Amino acid sequence: PRKIWLTRHGESQFNTMGKIGGNSSLSKRGQMYAELLPDILASRVPKTADGQTYPMAVWTSTLQRTIITASGLPYPKVQWKALDEIQAGTCDGMTYEEVAEVMPGEFAERRKDKLRYRYPSGESYMDVIQRLEPVVTEAEREKECVCIVSHQAVLRALYGYFMNQPLESVPRIDIPLHTLMELTPRADGTMAEVRFIVD
Ligand code: F6P
User: Fold this and answer.
1) Which tens digits make up the pLDDT trace of 122-134?
2) What's the CA-to-centroid distance between 194 and ligand 1, angstroms?
């Protein structure tokens, strides 16, 4: 059967500093993940009934950490702006500690309602869920297998959708780095999941 893979980009420079947002490149560890990903994925691509391997597509965001992570994958690629990480607006480039110190009100608001909280000049999880609609429609229409290389908040939204998770739980779904999530549609419309941890 056809499969959908979800993965975050390899660890970024900003990840190592605990900074949110930005458009940083990969750390050494992140680069390692990017180098291991092609073989892991190749070993998982299913065969069609006539013994051919399934046609594949790779979707990334427009941020360099996903583009670099996908760079070794030998399949056609599409960059989607809709797959870019949640926009943190005026908090972009800060650590959570800095946000708590400089904008304690914002920090508290987000903690209270992470799903609906919108960053000043930025986005909420609800905004992200909404902008992902065309991605989801396209993913469900595709005949090919699709590997989506994106970001923590975006993948929470996509995973929540594909795995039928309650909306309120979406902003806290565990989507670790260096983990390839493989989703396989079942006959009853639900998805089977396997995770490959590459650390
Ligand atoms: O820290 C990595 C990151 O992708 C940030 O760029 C983003 O703001 C954050 O995760 C989203 O996670 P959370 O909604 O838990 O802050």
Assistant:
1) 999 999 999 999 9
2) 23
Ligand 1 neighbour 152 (Cβ under 6 A): yes
3-state secondary structure 105-145: HHHHHHHHCCCCCCCCCCCCHHHHHHHCHHHHHHHHHCCCE
Question: Containing H/E element for 197?
Answer: strand 191-197
pLDDT interval class at 73 (50, 70, 90): very high
State the pLDDT confidence band at 1, using cuts at 50, 70 and 90.
Answer: low
Measured from the CB, is residue 11 less than 6 Å from ligand 1? no
Its pTM stands at 0.97
Ligand 1 proximity of 154 Cβ (cutoff 6 Å): no
Q: Ligand 1: which of 23, 90, 114, 151 to mutate, most ligand atoms within 8 Å of CB?
A: 151
